[in-house]
Amino acid sequence: MLKGKRMNRIKWLGLILLFVITSAACKKSVKGETQVYPTPDPVGTYALGADVSWITEMEAAGKKFYNAAGEQQDLLKILKDKGINTIRLRVWVNPTSGYCNTADVLAKAKRAKAANMRLLIDFHYSDSWADPGQQNKPAAWVSQDFATLKTSVYNHTVDVLTVLKINKIVPEWVQVGNETNNGMLWNDGKASTNMKNFADLVLSGYNGVKAVDPATKVVVHISNGYDNSLFRWIFDGLKNNGAKWDVIGMSMYPTATDWSAKNTQCLTNMTDMVSRYGSEVMICELGMPVTDAVACKAFIKDLIAKNKSLSNNKGLGVFYWEPQSYNSWSGYKLGAFDDTGKPTVAMDGFLTPPTP
Asked: Would you indicate the residue range of the signal peptide (predicted)?
């Protein structure tokens, strides 16, 4: 009899525990229906990310963000409920607007930390945009000789990361340059002109990152992740000239009609980067026209699966670039929020498990 009572008590305790877990996993939307929100992968596992570097500038201009039910919320809350667990932030040296300088990056990094999100820092080593078409030196560095330029890269890297560390923020990853298809800090560091100079600049950034925290992984980031010949040229050149890195970063911006073929080419390239250099691989940027949200969702899901399939867990994560840039903010039309400031179905590509 005593044994039977004990068994009944255990059954009741089990039912109570099940009820508590179920209740915690669900919440009511403003319309009243029960919704189950995804739990982001914990720190140390796969990164589902978004670059939201425009967030402070958009908010200052009066832009607001809303969940699918039309409820105004903080952007990071909306993204987290879509499965995003990591934030990427770009750093400019001395931008005229002030946005993306050290103080602005710190403010955004604090918000990411408060939201319990991970962090990727992206050094452009410029006062403005650095990409395959432009890698302009900061104004303050223009007249420097190459030896001083290497020191400036090191010092700038250390200075920004030290400010973050003082505030108890240590990024898991740091990009040394942004989409450096032909090097950076032109013309001194243009890869097609002087690969050794480019490698020396990457090494200066690498050493700066490791000086602040040796556990932070250094990313070298190239666009067109489907272009294996470009990646072999850059990374063979860096390796042969003494540069160091931990992670190979890629960008992927296909169309609604060619994304499947490009993803297949990207998988071939990622697999080659793992076998050729032993590197981990991350998709640091992706995007597709906001008008192609359904195709974009399929593209994201497929690219995540391909990146995750790399041997020895070498695939680290994927990042949407400025998904919140609705109403073509700054003329950008590859976001993943609609004209009312709500996420499109494209963002469901990050959900784990994906929505049907």
From this structure: none
